[in-house]
Design a protein that fits this description.
It contains 9 helices and no strands. The protein is mainly α and 211 residues long. The longest helix has 27 residues.
């Protein structure tokens, strides 16, 4: 079985690193995989080359990741964890005037600069496991956002708040990912319009909640 054929078998990380040396190896594998994916795309990345760049043998790589799909899933989980830190900062402040603009800017910067993000998530439909991660992140974020919004706007219907907190991030995420395919000037204009759209929507919904 070749290295790409392994992807259909299992995509979970084989072992979680405990010792410092093992953690360093896993980090090296993921760092090199992300850089390689940015260079040649998901399909072009090979586990043998990832191992070479990480300075380890291919059998050593397979001690931690059984195939390329497991590496991609681990990278996707890293992306989600990093973005969750950004979102939690927004929830803590919950500034709906300037905070949402800053959140959009932070996500846009991450989407453009995080190695491998664009290449991995542009193909989310092709990998059911990534779809599950994506949907799980969406619903988890909606839960946290709606809990905070319910505190700030106690008279607003809870189910509607939750659905709004599902809809807005999904709509924003789609536009942000679209902006990654554009040249910088176009992307900047698109993000400005996104901020305007979100701000106008929030003003209307906040007015409804306070009436």
């Amino acid at each position: 079985m070749n290295e790409e054929g392994r992807d259909a078998v299992v995509i979970e990380q084989r072992r979680q690193p405990v010792q410092e040396r093992s953690r360093e190896r896993v980090n090296a594998i993921l760092d090199q995989a992300a850089e390689m994916i940015r260079e040649v795309g998901v399909q072009g990345a090979k586990t043998s080359e990832i191992a070479r760049r990480a300075g380890i043998s291919l059998p050593s790589l397979y001690r931690y990741f059984p195939n390329k799909a497991a590496i991609i899933k681990a990278l996707a989980e890293q992306h989600i964890a990093k973005l969750d830190n950004v979102l939690q900062g927004f929830i803590a402040d919950f500034d709906l005037n300037e905070g949402f603009d800053k959140l959009i800017d932070a996500y846009a910067e991450f989407y453009r600069n995080e190695p491998g993000y664009k290449e991995i998530w542009s193909g989310v439909e092709a990998m059911p496991e990534l779809q599950a991660l994506d949907l799980g992140e969406l619903y988890s974020n909606a839960r946290d956002l709606s809990a905070k919004a319910s505190e700030v706007f106690p008279g607003f219907e809870e189910q509607r708040i939750w659905l709004i907190c599902v809809m807005l991030p999904r709509a924003c995420g789609a536009i942000l990912r679209l902006s990654m395919e554009m040249e910088e000037k176009q992307a900047g204009i698109l993000l400005s319009e996104l901020k305007l759209m979100v701000r106008a929507y929030l003003i209307r919904r906040i007015a409804d909640a306070q009436s």
